[in-house]
Write a structure and sequence with these properties.
- The structure holds two protein chains of two kinds.
- Chain A has two domains: about 1-60, no CATH class; about 75-275, Orthogonal Bundle (MetI-like fold), CATH 1.10.3720.10.
- Helices cover about 85% and strands about 0% of the residues of chain A.
- Chain A contains twelve helices and no strands.
- The longest helix of chain A has about 40 residues, at about 190-230.
- Chain B has helices at about 50-55, 95-100, 100-105, 110-125, 140-150, 170-185, 200-205, 235, 245-255; strands spanning about 5-20, 20-35, 40, 65-70, 70-75, 80-85, 160, 190-195, 205-210, 220-225.
- Chain B is globular and about 45 Å long.
- In chain B, strand 7 (about 160), helix 6 (about 170-185) and strand 8 form a beta-alpha-beta unit.
- Helices cover about 35% and strands about 25% of the residues of chain B.
- In chain B, the strands form two sheets. A six-stranded mixed β-sheet of chain B has the order 6-7-8-3-9-10, sandwiched between helices. Chain B has a four-stranded antiparallel β-sheet with strand order 2-1-4-5, covered by helices on one side.
- By secondary structure, chain B is of the alpha/beta class.
- Classes of the chains: A mainly alpha, B alpha/beta.
- The interface of A and B includes residues 177 and 189 of A.
- Chain A: Its main location: membrane.
- Chain A: It is a multi-pass membrane protein.
- Chain A: Belongs to the binding-protein-dependent transport system permease family.
- Chain A: One of its GO terms (cellular component) is plasma membrane.
């Protein structure tokens, strides 16, 4: 294990005070981490290489599957003529507005339910039904009502995420330790103060995890909406590509979508870390 | 001893209603607490000790009877009563100093003067260097001390302590009980504490009230008088010759049977 010895020696300078054994332990952890990342990257590379090779050797029908180099070229062309930015921009805008609105409105409704036990008990069965219903089934109706354009798509995105938010955040509110509330009551706290000082701050982790789920759900709403009515956006590219049998366009769009959704998810994860530094 | 009454509890009874019926938890409870006194309530588990505290604090209304604190009938949580719980209930997202200030904040009394006072209290009780820490960085004993300072920060005339050491391990419990006992005496606070720990009761209390099984009534009241060469602190009290006698008497009165 020459490599290992080198690692241990390198760490000597950085941690002069720890034992040899501890340095070896640190090296082992580091090595394992690196091995995982290398394997992850290799998997991706192997996947694309095999795909490309299978396409070139005519092992697969490229009319149905497209292939990486074709997709890459298309990607570059889309960037060059600027249409990529327009489609990405529109879809991203719809998604962000959709999940922000879904989260805010959902949280507001959750506060409302928390405020009145009576109302929350009355509405409980309706929320259960709405939650069980696949919201995408409502998309055609929503689009008829809200308009066959960006507004309709945003409302669809919001509708997909709002019920989950209401249930999740309200559940979080109810889980706040009742003795913590009692503690504030002994100081003479009003209901509004209880909401401000304990319910909301204690539920920030729940709200953030609702946002995380909503990012994904919002994309579902946006893509469904775009598949149905739009003239622009990633969903439009996918449906257009499939209609004219341009599989390179479909595949490229799906990959762009995957990257966008990941970036957005990571953004929320970063925000979570910032918000919860007390952990 | 001054005989200024801080708390008067008169014929308090409490009924609990559930769909299965009603339960009489407390029956005809009456006693007084005088200024600067620490009164301990002990009783078998489930006898309604904590309910009694909640009634005194004004969190719940008794079915009958009344509670008077400083000459005023208690009908809702009062700014002059501090309440300490089994768990510290510190807010994880607030620093220690901001946790201490929560009561003051709720009562809209947050001024620089109050802030300085809170910092002084933390300093005084050995937590000064931790004021910008988060609760998760403190040990259980320290957290419970912070909880007491949070209660003291609103300058209550009366403190109610609901089994405040139960959540701590045995050694920490002895140390924190000693510490909190000293703090209460030093600040000259009047306090009512509920516990199921007989030794804790004798070591901290000026008087110990023994409650019966449900429906709770007062079984007996013990004036704790200990002969000690040193100043009386909860830990020192355990060395007093009378300690054992009180322990045996109260133990018999609690009439515990494990079947």
């Amino acid at each position: 294990m020459l490599n290992n010895q080198k690692c241990v020696n390198d760490l000597k300078a950085k941690y002069p005070d720890v034992s040899e054994e501890h340095r070896e332990f640190l090296c082992k952890v580091k090595k394992r981490k690196r091995a995982i990342i290398i394997t992850q990257v290799s998997l991706l590379v192997v996947f694309f290489v095999l795909w490309e090779l299978a396409a070139r050797t005519k092992l697969i029908d490229t009319f149905l599957t497209s292939y990486p180099s074709q997709m890459w070229n298309l990607f570059l062309r889309l960037m060059e003529d600027g249409s990529l930015y327009r489609h990405v921009g529109i879809s991203t805008f719809e998604t962000v507005v959709g999940f922000v609105a879904g989260t805010l409105l959902g949280t507001l409704v959750a506060i409302f339910l928390w405020w009145s036990d009576f109302i929350s008990e009355v509405l409980d069965p309706y929320l259960v039904v709405l939650n069980a219903l696949p919201k995408t089934a409502l998309a055609p109706v929503i689009i008829l009502w809200a308009g066959a354009g960006i507004t309709g798509i945003i409302v669809t995105a919001m509708a997909v995420s709002i019920v989950v938010t209401i249930l999740g955040v309200y559940g979080g509110f109810k889980e706040v330790d009742s003795d913590k509330i009692k503690m504030l009551q002994t100081f003479g706290a009003t209901r509004l103060q209880i909401l401000q000082k304990v319910i909301i701050p204690a539920s920030i982790p729940t709200i953030v995890s609702a946002v995380k789920i909503n990012v994904g759900l919002s994309w579902v709403g946006v893509i469904v909406g775009e598949l149905m009515v739009s003239r622009a956006g990633i969903g439009y590219l996918i449906v257009y590509g499939s209609q004219v049998f341009r599989l390179d366009l479909v595949m490229t769009s799906v990959f762009i979508l995957a990257i966008l959704a990941t970036i957005m998810y990571q953004g929320v994860a970063y925000l979570e870390k910032k918000l919860m530094k007390w952990r | 001893m001054t005989v200024e009454k801080v708390v008067e509890i008169e014929n308090v009874s409490m009924n609990y209603h559930t769909l299965d019926g009603e339960t009489l938890a407390i029956k005809d409870l009456s006693f007084n607490v005088y200024k600067g006194e620490i009164v301990i309530i002990v009783g078998p588990s489930g006898c309604g000790k904590s309910t009694a505290l909640s009634i005194i604090s004004g969190l719940i209304k008794p079915s009958s009877g009344k509670v008077v604190v400083n000459g005023k009938a208690v009908v809702e949580p009062s700014k002059s009563i501090g309440y300490m719980f089994q768990k510290d209930h510190l807010f994880e997202w607030r620093t220690i100093l901001n946790n201490v200030l929560i009561g003051v904040e709720i009562q809209n009394k947050l001024t620089n003067e109050m802030k300085e006072k809170a910092e002084r209290l933390l300093e005084l009780y050995g937590l000064g260097e931790f004021k910008h820490y988060y609760p998760s960085q403190l040990s259980g004993g320290m957290r419970q001390r912070v909880a007491l300072i949070r209660t003291l920060a609103i300058e209550p005339d009366l403190l109610l302590l609901d089994e405040p050491f139960t959540a701590l391990d045995y050694q920490t419990k002895l140390a924190v009980a000693d510490e909190i006992g000293r703090i209460l005496k030093k600040e000259g606070k009047t306090a009512i504490m509920v516990t199921h720990d007989i030794s804790e009761a004798i070591s901290m209390g000026d008087r110990v009230i023994v409650l019966s099984k449900r429906p709770s009534t007062i079984k007996s009241i013990h004036e704790i008088k200990l002969t000690l060469d040193v100043e009386r602190t909860p830990l020192a009290s355990r060395e007093a010759p009378e300690f054992r006698h009180y322990f045996n008497t109260i133990w018999k009165e609690l009439d515990v049977h494990v079947k």
